[in-house]
Amino acid sequence: MTSDRRVSREIVERFHNAFEKHRHEDVDDPISEGCVLENTAPAPDGARYAGREACLAFWKGVASSANLIFKAEEISGMGDRGIIRWQPRRSEREGDWVRGVNIMRVRDGKVVEGLG
């Protein structure tokens, strides 16, 4: 595994673990000052968050939600990209979850872009 690929995977894995463990404070470190987040909600076009503080406010709100259970299906790195295939669950009941994907871009050990 190349260095960029390994670093990208490690950063997005650490980012995802903050959601699985509901440790919103762990989202702080891997997010860059110029980060941009594009989210799928609200439909149909989603929302765009620009800047570290805007991205952190959104992600920390999600990570601290006691009503969501996050499960990674796969985390991988490809160059400066990290990909997280995940399931947010409202419960363990059948059909009470969806699948999603986050494509993260990493530069200098920090997330600079999140597309979900």
Automatic annotation (TrEMBL):
It holds the Pfam family SnoaL_2. Signal peptide: none annotated. Residues 12-113 form the SnoaL-like domain. Keywords: Plasmid. The keyword Cell inner membrane does not apply. InterPro entries: NTF2-like_dom_sf (IPR032710), SnoaL-like (IPR037401). It comes from the Bacteria. SUPFAM superfamilies: NTF2-like. This is Nuclear transport factor 2 family protein. The lineage of its organism: Bacteria, Pseudomonadati, Pseudomonadota, Alphaproteobacteria, Hyphomicrobiales.
